[in-house]
Structures are given as structure tokens and as C-alpha cells.
Amino acid sequence: MMKKILTAILGTVLAAGQLATSVCAAPQESQPFQDKALEMLKTTVAIRSVEGSGLVKDVAEYVAGEFRKAGFPEQDIHLLPIGDTVALVVRLRGDGRLGKKPILLSAHMDVVDALPEDWERDPFTLIEENGYYFGRGSSDNKFGLSVLSATLMRLRAEGYVPGRDLVLALSGDEESLMATTRALATTYRNLIDAEFALVADGGGGQLNEDGVAVSYTVDSAEKTYATFEMKATNPGGHSSLPRRDNAIKDLSDALNRIFAFEFPVMSSELTRAYFSRTAPLVGGEVGDAMERFAENPDDGEAVALLRSRPEYVGSTGTTCVPTMLRGGHAENALPQSAVATINCRIFPGVGVQKTLEALKQVVGNDALEWTVLDEPLESDASPIRDDVFTAITNGVHASYPGLPIIPHMASGASDALHFRAVGIPSYTFSGIFMKSSDEYAHGLNERVPVATLPVAMKMWHSILTELTQ
Ligand SMILES: [Zn+2]
Known about the structure:
Blueprint: H1 2-21, H2 26-29, H3 31-45, H4 56-69, E1 77-82, E2 85-92, E3 103-108, E4 127-129, E5 132-134, H5 142-157, E6 166-171, H6 179-185, H7 189-192, E7 196-199, E8 204-207, E9 213-222, E10 224-233, E11 237-238, H8 247-260, H9 269-282, H10 284-295, H11 300-307, H12 310-313, E12 319-327, E13 333-334, E14 337-346, H13 352-363, E15 369-373, H14 386-397, E16 405-410, H15 415-421, E17 426-428, E18 433-435, E19 447-449, H16 452-466
Parallel strand pairs: 3-6, 3-7, 7-17, 8-18, 9-16
Antiparallel strand pairs: 1-2, 2-6, 4-5, 5-19, 8-9, 10-14, 10-15, 11-13, 12-14
The protein binds zinc ion (ZN).
């Protein structure tokens, strides 16, 4: 107990000292916490916290220990075992003067595995080289975890008292089952309940190949991820005695109809804002189509052009595409079954069941059997909140004045999905600014630019103070 009080006092004295010696330049004040973020990045990258390893616990215990050292009281640090992994929740208490619910901050402690023999450098050692930090998790998502943690420590050391609580929730299996996120959103709702969530795992700044910042993305909705299996069956028989009906033929006919089908055009406040703000960056005929679509989603020509581009088709409605096939059991036998896997990214608000009904209708063959794989989770789009977007804009503009801030609908699932599903509006963005050619999350030689760490620290400090005063 005594020791805890002592470190708390020491922490404050240290912070005051830093302020006194570096009154001139704001970035200098943040240096110790930038160093702390880097130290945390280094330490957590070295822990191979992959699915089934049981090592997420080590990350959580280390991070919890850092918060203790920084003077956070024990009752505000919660290590929550969930299955063979854990979640960690840390609260920076405010004085409640704003009369508002807390803000939830989130990142994840687990990583996709990396095989050292496939990498040019050891994936579990943070290595600085050529202006990058290399290592598994350097961008996804130990960067987010480290920067958010160090920022909360900095706020506390500065003696900053937020007008509402800031709650950091670190999940332990974002890359696999998301059981920890589900538990945080439901079982432990009382610990993480918030007016909205800021998730530091996705979005962020895009640099062009010359390293110039061109835009900043905030994901405020996710399409619903759902996978269906469609199965054709047949009595089969000897292949020397072919019959008119055939499981593979039935399945192919159905697939051809699905390929020829387009889901109805849809738009929302979010996708219209996305297209109208992206239009000037893209320019040309695609930019022109974006602008026209934002004004009138019934503009057939604009829709056709956007739907011809894989990177934009998903923002114009639901998409479903066959991704896997299996069928038959011997080369000289008529197939007794043929199965296609169809993966869908469903526009928020449409629903899994309605999408399945639409596919069945398109196929028009009642003899086919359909199965919904796993348990798709549906969530509505989060509103484009003024307070959140203004704070993000100011935080980004502190380093990149005038950079366009673009609300975006993600087509994959992340922790934000689970928060949104229980009614907590969620916004996913990170302090990482990088070129798309440097994006190696989940892949080999994952990296993050060294230059982005101070930018991220500055951004989060600005956003969190703006939203809590
Ligand atoms: Zn991630």
C-alpha cells in the first residue's frame, strides 16, 4: 500500500519536473510517455500471444503491472480470465463534472501467429530498421495497446482530471473467437459501459508512395459477415450410366444465377459522406461517379461504375460471392452431393435472414439445402457524431493540418462489432499513418513507421482531452 502511494507521488513529481524543464515544446513533454509506449511495444511484441498459447495472460499481467507502477489504484485494474485467454480493463477516473457516461477505449492483446523461419527478422523481437519497427503486432495491434496505455499514464502523470471516466478495455482473442470482446460487452458490461467506444485497431492515416498524407479514415460501421453453405444432393450412381439430374449440375446452375445477381443499391448517411469526401481525392470518372452517387444513389451509371471496382462495390450494398466448392466422392461415380460456400458482407440494417431469403429466391430451386455457418452478428451503423469527429479532426490536424477525415464502413469484423451490437456506438481509427504498400498486418514482416509513434501519441492526447473537458 505504502509503496503504491509512494510511486504515485513520485510519478507526479517526475511529471512536474518534466514540465518545468521543457516548457517550450509540447512534444518534449510527451517524450517520456512516447518512450514508455515504445518500451511497451517492445515488451509485448516479444510475447507470442497467439490463439491457444495461453500467453495473452502474460501480456495482460505486464500491462496491468505498468498501470500499477504508474499509480493507477488496484480497484481500477481488472484482469478477467475468459476461457484460456484474458481481458484487461483499466479505468482512469474523472470527476464527473461533464455528467456524461465514460468513453471506452479499446485494443487487443492477441496476434495472428508468425513463423520465425518465414520472416527475414525474428517476428517476436521488435527491430528498428530503415525507419520502421518490425515485429508481429507492431501494427496489429500492440501499437494501439501501447499508445493508448501510455497516453492514459501521461494524462494521470500530468495531473489531468477528465470530466468523465476513460475506460481502457483490452481484448484477448480479437483475431480468433472474440469471446473476450463478447464477454466485455455482456458479462462485464458494468465495467466497460460507455457512451461510445474508440477502437484503436483499424482506420488511420493513408500516406501516398511519396510519404505525403492524403486522407484519414474512421470506421463507424461494419458490414455483417455471414457465410452460407448451399448443398445439392442426388441418389448418384455409376458414371457409365449418367442421368439427366446431377448434383454438380444443380449446384452449377444455382451458382450461375448467384453470379448474375446483384443486390439492390443501398446507401446511408455514412456511405454518402464516404463517397462525397473521397470523390475529390480520387478524381477522374470514378471521383465523378462518387459525387453523383452521394447526391443521388439512384444514378444508374454512377452505380454501374462504382460496382465495377472491387474496392467500392461493397459500399453500394450487400455482396455475396461463392468462395469454396466441394462435391462428388469418386471419379467414376455420379456425385451424391455438391456443396458451395457463399460468403456475404451484408449492408447494415438488412439482416442475415433476409439475405438468405434473397439468395434462395435468386436460385429458385427448393431442393437445395442451405446452412448458415457460425453465428453471424448483426450491428447497426454508428452515427457520425459531431463531438467524436471534431475531436478526431483536431487530433489529426495537430500533425497534418487540413487532412480530409473520411467516415468509412468496414467490410470485416473487429471488436467494435460487439460493442455496437449491444448499443455502444463505436469508432475505429488508429494513430498509424502509413503507405498501403507498408501494410503487412497478419502477414510477413509486419511493420510500422518509426515516425508515426509521436504522431499517434499527440493525436490520442488531443482527442482524449478534448472529449473529456
Ligand atoms: Zn487487429
